[in-house]
Queue: 2 jobs
Job 1
Amino acid sequence: QQQVKQSPQSLIVQKGGISIINCAYENTAFDYFPWYQQFPGKGPALLIAIRPDVSEKKEGRFTISFNKSAKQFSLHIMDSQPGDSATYFCAASGVTGGGNKLTFGTGTQLKVEL
Amino acid sequence: DAGITQSPRHKVTETGTPVTLRCHQTENHRYMYWYRQDPGHGLRLIHYSYGVKDTDKGEVSDGYSVSRSKTEDFLLTLESATSSQTSVYFCAIRGGGFEQYFGPGTRLTVT
């Protein structure tokens, strides 16, 4: 059972454009939603995270939008750069008890072209 | 890299042999995790630990065991490796809040 569905599987964006990756979750107990960036041969790196008490969080060029009623959240990368080319994973967990176990989406391969 | 090291970084082993992967942290974090990464599946939790000698199962724990005798070390053991356990294994620690930081990974091939 895939509890976090991520789309698209791959994405090509022109330099300077906006990259948008979407995730949907099923478990209403989830209340922590991080995004990770992974380069080939490296471990996932935490990019940005949000709790459901806010609908949007911005850090530099990266923004998470969160829709609690729709059980959806998305990552927006503004002014996308070739250095942003990587695989992005959304994840979700419940933070109260249970060890904060992350459930991941299947990943989006982003390529930013010049 | 949040002070996390994993060893070995690469390993090739034969079906049926035992394998132990090690995760070492330098920052005294209470929570540690083992995930596996496979194409089309993202990362999936195998086991996690919430303190010395305190561990619990994750989503894909069958065929794996873990041990944590010291705060800084979390070991993942494949008692009898199978080809389906060919994967990249990542260790993670939980920081001061809810965030998790991942190690560099171990690429395991079971032939």
Job 2
Amino acid sequence: QKEVEQDPGPLSVPEGAIVSLNCTYSNSAFQYFMWYRQYSRKGPELLMYTYSSGNKEDGRFTAQVDKSSKYISLFIRDSQPSDSATYLCAGRGSTLGRLYFGRGTQLTVWP
Amino acid sequence: GAVVSQHPSWVICKSGTSVKIECRSLDFQATTMFWYRQFPKQSLMLMATSNEGSKATYEQGVEKDKFLINHASLTLSTLTVTSAHPEDSSFYICSAPAGAPTGELFFGEGSRLTVL
């Protein structure tokens, strides 16, 4: 079993839709969770960083962590064509520990 | 956020030659940097952890003699692909943790290597 599981998609939505991206993880020691956005042929860009369970909101993006079910989510409100990218979830057990990535979900937002 | 610079962004070389990729932390110091490899439509595969002033730690299955890593200073790590072959063609990305105590991981822009 991989440390972090993520449906690769692809996911295609119309502009303005609410997007829900999800991951599950198996390591109960994970405390820190991140979401990265990666455009084609570019390095990943850190979108959201959360600690333990709960929600974190930043503009149109909301990250949610449910440690009881080992489930992490990223919601994108009012999605835009510029949000079209691959979204990678990741988790780790400590601040300097190894980061485990999901496979990434490819999202396309069409106008 | 913190800036990690990677160079070159793309390189084409002949089979049998060596290629060096540089990774620099521009506005912070990094005693540790990570090197990843990414195949098309796949996730990031951790190759090795680069440690300033000591030997790199390689992941299982990664050839140490093929992928030479040097962490010369607190802001520079290099990855050298030695005697490159077409199967080494890939997207190589470095990253570094910044912002204690959270240790958020920032990535370079990546280097696309094509071996002919």
